[in-house]
Amino acid sequence: MTTNTEKDVVDLSKPINGHSFTNKWLLDSLRTHDKTFINLHGNRSVKDITATNISEGLGFISYVYRCNITFNDDENDQYSTVLKIPTLKELERVQGELDEGYAKQITEVHECECFFYKNFAKILDVPMPKVFKMVEYIHDRQEGCIHMEDISQNGKCISHFENINLTKIKSFIRNLARMHKNILCAKDLDWRGKHLKNATLFGDFVESVDMFIDGFLIKCKLEDTFRPLVTKYRKFTLNKDYFYFANVQAHKDLNMPSVLVHGDMFAGNIMWTKDEEGDIQNEVAAFIDWQVMHEGSPMSDLSCFLTLCADGVVRRQAEQFAIQYYYDCLVKEFGDANLVPYTVENLQICYDYLFMSHAFHTMGLTEFMIKALKEPNEALKDAYYDFSVLKALHAWEDADRLLNGKYKHIYEKYGQPK
């Protein structure tokens, strides 16, 4: 009997975009694990496979390739699938030479994402791609990989320099509430206390973020406004103890049970549905890149999402209803308000703590993201930059307002010169 491999015309030994994974590896994975491919194309001869990097400007510790497969009997009928391969090359391009510690970290985040898809994905029941096969990453010895469904035909990410709206925010919150209810109610899953490492990951990079601030002050056109804030809060922004408190301890002090946190809900990790014209709509199509998932506060992902994805106007509008709306969505998910283990008051406190930890990242993040942006139109690039500067200003102003008022004691504990 003739096998698929014997019928294929494509060069099976050819590496995919220079990586260790070959066309044969990809086809074997599809024909073994992807039920849709098996049902539609399992016995067809493959003519060619082309891989395109679709992660430029959206991710920094992996390459994501859309692999398009064409068939001998009909070149116009194509099938696409995705390979995600860990790498530090994009981060090096933006940030410069990296120390050896990054190699260990990329190993750990790939391992973390693989663990998530094996153990948590089905439980959470929120939109995300199907995963077909995973390969362990071993630095300098073996490339890692996650082979997954291509959902780009149905969804699309926006960039850091585009805005969200209130309808998108409600969709995000509804999914967040479902995810939290499902993990809180998960039975026969011993997860608590075992996934804390990534909770303070971004706190470990405060020095890397800080190194962009001086350049930001020179370029932002608002140095006279930003400089006093930076002078006042720079010590606070570099205090890793505060990041630990906000991300690990604060909700526990309020007797609020932990949930599973995505950990990096910025624009490049959320796909939105799109219509027949390819225009982005308002419902979440998928949450992607679960590399830094961890146990943490129920307000961690919401605070990150609003601070990094919304401009000051939309965020301030959303903050008038978001906490209550999240609580109401949880009540619907549980079916009984008495089963919800949180109060709106305590959720607000946790949100505020986490907002402040994210807000002070916005200045350095603006510089990092504009450096990564590949936009040939300089006028448009300048407009993107100005948009992000204003987003950062509103975030810093709101953090300043909180630390001068309701949370003055937090500033006195974590931000005062000794």
UniProtKB/TrEMBL annotation:
What sequence ranges are listed for the domain CHK kinase-like? Answer: 146-336
> Looking at the record's lineage, which domain of life comes first?
Eukaryota
Supply the InterPro entries for this chain. CHK_kinase-like, Dhs-27, Kinase-like_dom_sf, Oxido-Kinase-like_Enzymes
Q: Which Gene3D superfamilies match?
A: 3.90.1200.10
* Protein name, per record: CHK kinase-like domain-containing protein
